[in-house]
Amino acid sequence: MSGPVFPAGFKASDTNFMKMGKNTAQQKHLDHVKSIFASLKSERIRQGKSQMEIAQRMGVDRSAISKMEAGANISIYRTVEFAEILGQRIKITDEKGF
User: Fold this and answer.
1) What is the pTM of this model?
2) pLDDT digits (tens, 9 = 90+) for 7-19
3) Which CATH number is 15-92's, of 3.40.50.970, 3.40.640.10, 3.40.50.300, 1.10.260.40?
């Protein structure tokens, strides 16, 4: 079982990546987070699960799942929960892969 990897420097307080500035480091993080949610969305679709099904299991509105998949309104807790529902794991590493 594998899953997306968060970059070093990822902070739980960075809950809305869409509002981040455009400096290079922040854009790199934003791009990485978007790729994580693209992977989770692809896995959700591959498994034939709807946003509504994921939302019900997480106890949130379907719109919250839509926002997460778009890279907005993200928390580490909810990201891990989303991944676990899909049988995936989130791994946080530094740039060297540790």
Assistant:
1) 0.68
2) 555 554 444 444 5
3) 1.10.260.40
